[in-house]
Amino acid sequence: MAKFRITGATKTNIARAVLGATVLASGLGAHMGTAAAAEKLPVTAAAANTHDDDRAKRETKISVTAAQVLALAKSQVGISENAYGGGTPYQKWYAASQRAAETIARDGGTRAEYINAPWCAMFVSWVGEHTGARPQVGWDAYTVAYAKWFQANQRFGSVAKPGAVVFFSWSGSKDLDAINHVGFVEKDNGDGTISTVEGNTGNGKVEERIRPTSQVVGYGYPQYAG
Fold it and tell me: Which residues form the signal peptide (predicted)?
């Protein structure tokens, strides 16, 4: 669901990460590392992905639109986790990614622990990667650090926009540290609700949902084309 951060150093943080069984046998062994959050908080947080942003601005013209990102996200609707809470393309991709090694260095843990871990943020990260918009969308598996990356890059706010990354707290808190879940905004419905595309929702699926804005902590704004 979302509050996922592997520390490996303490049982308390492992419990907080709500990790499932460590199921990864072969295929990932060559990649030492794990996936958890996108940046350590502001300074280290901004460091890794801020470099991605700066490099993208220097080397690549931003060409991915919000509509393209939402189209890929919506094409995944119906994909479900297995009985262990894992087995999705998003968890497998993230566990094998370069980002996993970076978050292991930050939080501890192993790549295998991501295979059955809460995957809403991994879904958002996967969509960014597979549309070519990762430098704008970011990548992480820990929702709190993901939101703080947007904040550190001055791209976090309170207005729902199509393609924005939306962060939820089921308690209604507006504190970033209370974030439980993340997805994409499809649209603001103008009636106190938003339409979204989310991973690891319902019974562990990718689904389109309608959410009350009272549960929204804030929105991260990728820099889209157009």
Answer: 1-37
